[in-house]
Amino acid sequence: MRRAGFVRIAGVDEVGRGCLAGPVVAAAVVLPLDDRVRGLRDSKLLTPAMRDRLHDEILERCLGWSVGMREPADIDRLNIHHASLAAMRDAVVALHPLPDFALVDAFRIPSLFIPQRGVVGGDRRCAAIAAASVVAKVVRDRRMQELHQQDPRYGFDRHKGYPTPEHLAAMARHGYSPVHRRSFRPRSLFDTID
Fold it and tell me: Is residue 91 within 8 Å of 26, Cβ to Cβ?
């Protein structure tokens, strides 16, 4: 893209698609052309401590960053795919100045008015998308910590809303909380309730 003349290239990624609770969070990050962030890779390949360190370094060194979020009610209304795309679009259009181009992990974002390309496996192939994955993951994990403080019964601080055995057992015991996605109905939860 740089050889084609694009300068401000945003990497875009989201986290939280497979969770039973909490928001889906997307980030857009514009990295400088000549500055590499040491140790940067897909957030799923990093420890929480590494993600926190990289998150702070990315925000300090990047040319721009922003976050988009869709809460469980939006996810239930739109479905997770459309809610993820909406969060990604929000993240991109919140960048100031706007990027010249967006590289998006896996998908193209509908109704985005700047040039873009979906990159399959982008969080492992593109530094800007990897940076966005780290920022989105840290922002979402911190939000889940806040939700845990508000209601510790579910253990959001440990599983971050993903369908772990611990989370499913808490849901079977306490039911859905206001931050659970009502449209997500894990079969194993109903097996435990029956």
Answer: yes
Q: Within 10 A of 106 (CB to CB), how many other CB atoms are there?
A: 14
Average pLDDT of the chain is 93
Residue 78 burial (10 A CB sphere; 0-12, 13-18, 19+)? middle
Q: Domain 9-143, CATH 3.30.420.10 — does that match?
A: yes
Q: Among residues 101, 103, 105, 102, which one has the least CA distance to residue 122?
A: 105
Q: Which residues pair with 64 in a beta bridge?
A: 30
Instruction: Say if pTM beats, i.e. exceeds, 0.85.
Output: yes
Strand locations in the chain, DSSP E? 9-15, 24-30, 64-70, 101-105, 116-119
Domain boundaries in the chain? 9-143
